[in-house]
Amino acid sequence: MANASFWNGCRVLLTGHTGFKGSWLALWLSELGADVCGVALEPETTPSLFNQLGLAKQLLGHHLIDIRDCTALTSIIGKFQPQVVLHLAAQPLVRRSYQDPLGTWATNVQGSLNLLEALKPLKHPCAVVMVTTDKVYANQEWDYGYREEDRLGGHDPYSASKAAAELAISSWRNSFCGEASHQTPHLSIATARAGNVIGGGDWAEDRIVPDAVRSLCSGERIPVRRPESTRPWQHVLEPLSGYLLLAEKLVEDGNSFSSSYNFGPMLEANRSVRDLVETLLSYWQGGWQDCSDSMTPHEAGRLHLQIDKAHHQLGWRPRWSFDTTVKRTVLWYRAVHEGESPLERCLDDLQAYNTVTNPNSTSSTDNSSI
Question: What are the angstrom distances between the C-alpha of 150 and each of 136, 154, 158?
Answer without folding.
Answer: 10, 13, 18
